[in-house]
Design goal:
two-stranded antiparallel ribbon
Length: 108
């Protein structure tokens, strides 16, 4: 875990807030945008601890294969799928089509 967890979590939450409705990002993508691509597990921990799920759309974060979290903290796996589908995200064989729905944000 990084030395200053609160600053790292704050940065993660800021990035996740920027994911547009109808798009998804991966844990690794969020980690890279924080400046440390090795923090993907920390991203997962931060999102599981999300203090404001109404404004920090952690349901828009999936794994690199387009799979939703089996331990989605805010209603389970089915709830994450429901939230994404309500935003227009389509699933094929239980996975998000990453070519279509992955957020294109890149490092500056």
């Amino acid at each position: 875990m990084p030395q200053d967890k609160s600053n790292t979590f704050t940065k993660i939450y800021e990035i996740v807030r920027d994911i547009p409705c109808g798009n998804v990002a991966t844990y690794g993508q969020i980690a890279e945008l924080t400046g440390n691509r090795r923090l993907s597990r920390v991203v997962g921990y931060a999102l599981h601890s999300n203090p404001d799920p109404e404004n920090i759309p952690c349901h828009r974060v999936v794994n690199r294969f387009g799979e939703v979290s089996k331990a989605f903290a805010f209603g389970g796996v089915n709830r994450q799928v429901e939230l994404l589908e309500a935003e227009g995200v389509k699933f094929k064989d239980g996975k998000v089509d990453m070519k279509t729905y992955q957020w294109k944000k890149r490092l500056l």
